[in-house]
Amino acid sequence: MTRVIQTRNGPGQNFDTVYVDDVKEMHCDGFGDVMLSPSIIKMSLYQTRPVDLSEQPKDPANAIEHRHISLILAMSPSQLLQGLLSLLSGMAANASALEAASMEERAQIAKLLSAIKIPAGSNAIFAPKQSEGV
Length: 134
Description:
The chain is of the alpha+beta class. Helices cover 28% and strands 28% of the residues.
């Protein structure tokens, strides 16, 4: 079922924003392969995927990251800039709330991590050495 979530009626802004049944949400780790022209900007949005360790070089400095392109975003430069300016303006206007939420999340993660007890002699991959204090 589609539903209208926003309606604007005014000079130069007459539109409805509608959610459709099959709208997809996708997490992206980054973007690349950006193509710029006066009429369009295209960028590839990617997700980083696990790599078979047998495919990795022996030297970790030469490790290979697999980036799977999930979506190619194509927009007019003016629309992209308008959207980015709106996003950045909203973030700047709410900077103190964003910072407070970030600090709360960080404190909650630290609290949860400090509650984890790793048994002595554990084979946990990330267990600290006994000399580091558990």
